Every structure is written in C-alpha cells, then in structure tokens.
C-alpha cells in the first residue's frame, strides 16, 4: 500500500489550497481521512469520508465550512479542498485509511498503519 500526498505549499491567510492523495494497493473508496500535525501538537483528524459512494463525511469543528473532502474513485485519489485558510491551519497534512469500529462519528474515527509521507501547508498572516 502506498499513499502519496501533494498540493501543499505556502499561502497567505484567506487563500486556498487543494491537497491530493493518490493511492496504490488500496481502494480509495475505503474509509479515508485527512489528518494534520502541527509543531508541538498531537495529530488532529481534519476530515473523513466513509466507505463507498455516499460515504458519510465528518469534519473537525475548526474546519467546518472551509474544508471539503472528496474522492475520485476512477483516479483512486482523495482530495482536500481548503478555503479561507488561517495561520492556525499550518501543519503537515497526511491522508490515511481510517477505521471506526465503534461507529462512524468524528470522535470514534481512528487512523490505521496506512499513511502517506505528508505535505506541508504553511499559512502566513
């Protein structure tokens, strides 16, 4: 399994970025999520999408209304559209296959061993 993220960069506050995660050896129609890791902070689930077409989507409260997770099954690619970026969004962003053994809800979604290498997002004020 390989997950390769791209699309990060440096952007001014209020700007936008679109992250991509190309999967091989894993169907992107699996439950998938975007996490971020800011310096000195724990990993945070940013957004997740459930299995298959119509998979339920959940977001961290801090990104609701600004970020959109989506996927293209034909290209086996997961996306994260990030709008109205803020300096506090600065982090390394990772995609991961996720699981939710006790039910699909934000607080119950966990990462698995399948992670990409990450892509740096830096938002300047």
The parts where pLDDT drops under 50 for at least 5 residues are: none
How many strands in all?
Answer: 11
Straight-line distance between termini: 37 Å
Choose one word for the global shape.
globular
**What is the H-and-E element order?**
EEEEEEEEEEE
Q: Any idea what the radius of gyration is? A: 13 Å
Mean pLDDT: 96
Structural class: mainly beta
Report the helical percentage: under 10%
Main pleated sheet: 7 strands, mixed
Strand content: over 45%
Count helical runs: 0
Describe this structure in words.
- The protein is mainly beta and 125 residues long.
- It is 0% helix and 52% strand.
- Strands 2, 4, 5, 6, 9, 10 and 11 form a 7-stranded mixed β-sheet that branches.
- A hairpin with a 4-residue loop joins strand 7 and strand 8.
Search tags:
125 residues; mainly beta; globular; 7-stranded mixed beta sheet
């Amino acid at each position: 399994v390989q997950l390769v993220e791209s699309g990060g960069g440096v952007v001014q506050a209020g700007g936008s970025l679109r992250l991509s995660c190309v999967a091989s050896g894993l169907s992107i129609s699996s439950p998938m999520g975007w996490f971020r890791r800011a310096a000195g902070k724990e990993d945070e689930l940013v957004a997740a999408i459930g299995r298959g077409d119509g998979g339920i989507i959940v977001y961290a409260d801090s990104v609701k209304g600004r970020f959109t997770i989506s996927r293209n099954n034909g290209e086996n690619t997961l996306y994260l559209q990030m709008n109205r970026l803020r300096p506090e969004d600065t982090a390394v962003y990772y995609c991961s296959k996720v699981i939710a053994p006790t039910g699909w809800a934000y607080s119950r979604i966990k990462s698995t061993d399948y992670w990409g290498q990450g892509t740096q997002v830096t938002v300047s004020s």
